[in-house]
Amino acid sequence: MRPSSLRARAGALRRLLLVLGGALTCGGFGLAWYVGRFGRREGAVPAEVGVVLGARVLAGGVPSGALWARVEKAVALYQQGLVPRLLFSGGTGLHPPSEAQVMRALAVRLGVPAEACLLEEQSHSTEQNARFSAEVLRRLGAQRVVVISDAYHLLRARQYFRLQGLEVATSPAPSGERLEAVEHFYWTVREAFALLAHPRVLLARSPLR
Prior knowledge:
Layout: H1 3-40, E1 49-53, E2 57-58, E3 62-63, H2 65-79, E4 86-89, H3 99-109, E5 117-120, H4 126-140, E6 144-150, H5 154-163, E7 167-173, H6 181-196, H7 199-202
Parallel strand pairs: 1-4, 1-6, 4-5, 6-7
Antiparallel strand pairs: 2-3
Helix pairs in contact: 1-6, 2-3, 4-5
C-alpha cells in the first residue's frame, strides 16, 4: 500500500475518532444536565420502605456530612408518614462500623424507633446497594420504595433499583452546605458518564410500564 493511501486512511480514522469523541462528550454533558435536573426534584411518595444509601464513615465511626444529610432526610420522610420503615444500605469502608450501622444509630438518635430500622451491610457500590437491598425487600414483600441519596446520585440509583424489579421514587438529601458548585458539577458529570458506560442501567424501565 502506498504511503499516501496509509496517510489518507489514518486521517479518516482520526476524523472518525474525533466525531465519536465529540458525540460522546456532548452526550455526556447533555445527560449530566438531566442528571442534575432529575436529582433536584422531590419525588417522595407513600411507599413501603425508605432505602437510604450509605456514604463515607470517618475515623472513629463519625458520620460524614453526606451520611448525616441522607439520614436526616430519611428521618423527615418517616416523620411525615411517607415511609413506615427505613432500610440503611452500606458496608464497612476504611473505618468501621458499617455505613448502615452508623446510619441506624443516627436515625434512632433522631427519633426513629429501632424496630423501624433495617440493615443491609454487604454493599460497596450503587449496584450492590440495589441488589442486596432488594433481597431484604423481597423477604418483606415490599415492592414500592423511596430511595434517599445525594441529588447527583439519584438517577443512577433509581435505575439500579429498577433493574431489581422495584417501583422506585427518589428523594434528594440537601447538599448546599456540603458541596461547592465545582464539586457538585464534578460529581454530576461523573454520574452521567457512569450511566453512559452502562446502557442497560441507563435504559432500565419501571416494572409498571
